[in-house]
Specification:
The complex is a heterodimer of chains A (174) and B (431). Chain A contains five helices and four strands; from the N terminus they run E-H-E-H-H-H-E-H-E. Chain A is of the alpha+beta class and 174 residues long. Chain B is globular and about 80 Å long. Classes of the chains: A alpha+beta (174), B mainly alpha (431). At the A-B interface, loops of A face helix 11 of B.
């Protein structure tokens, strides 16, 4: 069964923002919006939930800190506590200042890289991924709003023409 | 227009009055002779449950020397309390002025709604620097023993200090202090005047003049701040030196200054005086508190770790003494100045809540008071330290004076700058 969607194309982000608000108040369901650059406030206008990526990064940072600490503790204190240049290796706390640069860098490394990987996974990005671009102009200077079509086709097209779209298409989607 | 509320004025006056009483008590209680010191020490030994150690004739001289040493420390204690509180609060008002200058010079679009708060609070700089200069004069003319290099009897037997007298001598020291204090105060008076003229006339040439003066001031400031921190703080531990000390002191007082700005903003906002200040402005102040707290910690650790790691006797004694004699404040301050602010202010939503900013702010202000205490007290009071009535009273006195001077100045002119070219942007600032 194929469903129909409407592709409304705009050429200005201010018009797009107004169109999003009108579309939402008319209770059309916005499937997706394609823009060539970040449009400030678009996520709020669409009613998207805020990202939790920062919380992930904080947790990854804690993992990195724990990893760095455990690694230095095991290597320098437990496994082979040598006297290296008179640094006290009797307990972790005694030699702790010299481990801080490593613990810090591990925190940053884990939190940055794992957060980026999380971002790729959540937004399904990887090399050789097939681009999901419905219209090539959306990477350059056009904005495209994809809306699920329910009910009258003509009426919906009229509605989106009115919101300032330069082009409105009805597409069959598999 | 803000009217200085009766409650706040009373609070400021009560703080000052209690402060004076406490300071007087501290000076009155300080021992005058070695006999008194001996009595205090034996009492302490009793409290600690230690046994009487009888003094043999041979040890008598050494014991007498020790008593004189402790006497100097105990006599220094009230002076140190006043000195620490005085320099701390004065540098906070200087930090507020510098933060104002930074925002002006960088044409910050968010902060012009807070300019009058910053201008007003920095009014303490003038009375603060006068009192501070009087303290320096008292030290210079033998009123106390805060700076050992000012004591000819010590310098006579100390080659290290003798080699530094080209820089560390009283006339040059006082001349430098005058140049720094006058320079900073001149900028503050000039900035206030231009800002008020801009308000009245709307003539943007005043804005340009102030902009240029601000750029010059920031250059003057960073040079003089560095030198003054060597003069007023580092020279107390005359044998010790650290190359990043100036920035370390700067980081310490700028973060406290931003916190104080946030406190005053929250207070005035809660009284309904800052109509255009929204949570985004508070959020920005919170970010500065967060960022500068980390910056302070970075410098603290850089200074500590480099000297701990190389372990060169002539410089590491500075930290050994602090770890041995001031263990709890030395490491406790890291909790107050780093761990608490970072954890409280990490969350973006938290930075918009007044009570979270206040909690982190209290931690920062007290933490950095301890930081200044730890820079100064080990060199003057040594092991005979305690944070008691005198220390708290001194802080109360200067805090009261700060509130009085700051809010008097705020109440004199409208709380919103009018013709600043960035004010419209600032009113509509949202993050």
């Amino acid at each position: 069964m194929s469903t129909k969607v409407i592709h409304a194309i705009y050429n200005d982000d201010d018009i797009l923002m107004d169109a999003v608000k009108e579309t939402r108040s008319a209770h059309h369901h916005i499937e997706e919006i394609y823009t060539p650059f970040p449009v400030h406030g678009l996520d709020k206008a669409m009613g998207l939930k805020p990202t939790r990526l920062a919380i992930c990064a904080f947790l990854y940072g804690l993992v990195g800190l724990a990893f760095g600490t455990a690694m230095m503790y095991y290597i320098m204190i437990v496994d082979w506590p040598q006297d290296i240049g008179g640094k006290p290796s009797f307990s972790f706390i005694q030699n702790m200042p010299s481990f801080v640069p490593i613990m810090f860098e591990m925190t940053v490394l884990f939190s940055a890289h794992l957060m980026v990987i999380t971002f790729y996974m959540r937004s399904r990005l990887w090399p050789f991924k097939k681009a999901e671009n419905p219209d090539i102009r959306t990477t350059d200077d056009h904005f495209l709003m994809e809306v699920a079509l329910h009910g009258e086709e003509e009426e919906a097209v009229e509605f989106f023409k009115k919101t300032g779209a330069v082009e409105v298409k009805v597409i069959d989607k598999e | 227009m803000y009217t200085f509320s009766k409650n706040l004025k009373t609070l400021a006056i009560v703080l000052m009055a209690l402060g004076i009483i406490g300071i007087a008590y501290g000076f009155f209680n300080a021992p005058k002779t070695t006999a008194e010191v001996e009595q205090i020490l034996t009492e302490q030994a009793h409290h600690d449950g230690g046994e009487h150690h009888s003094v043999s004739e041979a040890d008598h001289d050494a014991h007498q020397k020790h008593l004189e040493h402790v006497l100097t420390q105990m006599q220094n204690k009230p002076w140190t309390a006043v000195y620490v509180a005085c320099i701390f609060v004065m540098l906070i008002s200087l930090g507020i002025l510098v933060f104002y200058a930074l925002n002006y010079a960088s044409a910050a679009g968010w902060s012009p709604v807070l300019f009058r708060v910053m201008e007003g609070l920095s009014a303490y700089l003038l009375p603060g620097s006068i009192i501070f200069f009087i303290l320096l004069l008292v030290s210079s003319f033998g009123g106390n023993h805060l700076f050992i290099w000012m004591d000819p009897a010590i310098v006579e037997h100390d080659v290290i200090i003798q080699n530094k007298t080209g820089y560390l001598n009283v006339p040059f020291f006082l001349i430098r202090a005058i140049i720094f204090l006058v320079g900073w105060n001149l900028y503050r008076v000039y900035a206030r005047k231009q800002s008020l003229k801009l308000d009245e006339t709307g003539d943007l040439s005043y804005h340009k003049k102030l902009f240029k003066a601000t750029a010059v001031f920031l250059v003057f400031f960073i040079v003089t701040e560095s030198i003054s921190s060597w003069d007023w703080i580092m020279s107390i531990d005359t044998h010790w030196y650290s190359t990043l000390f100036g920035w370390y002191v700067f980081a310490s007082f700028i973060v406290t200054a931003i916190t104080v700005i946030a406190f005053a903003t929250l207070y005035l906002k809660s009284k309904g005086y800052l109509e255009h200040v929204n949570t985004s402005h508070i959020h920005d102040l919170g970010k500065f508190m967060f960022g500068f707290s980390i910056f302070w910690t970075y410098l603290w650790f850089s200074q500590f770790m480099l000297q701990w790691y190389s372990n060169i006797p002539e410089e590491v004694t500075y930290f050994i003494f602090r770890i041995q004699e001031y263990n709890v404040p030395f490491f406790g301050m890291l909790l107050l100045n780093f761990v608490l602010p970072v954890l409280l202010l990490m969350n973006s939503d938290f930075k918009r809540l007044g009570w979270i900013i206040s909690m982190a702010g209290v931690s920062i202000v007290f933490g950095h008071y301890i930081d200044f205490y730890l820079m100064i007290s080990p060199g003057t009071v040594g092991g005979s330290w305690s944070i008691g009535i005198t220390e708290i009273a001194a802080l109360m006195f200067f805090a009261g004076l700060f509130i009085f001077a700051g809010f008097t100045s705020i109440s004199k002119v409208p709380l919103l700058v009018k013709n600043n070219p960035l004010i419209e942007e600032s009113k509509h600032f949202h993050y």
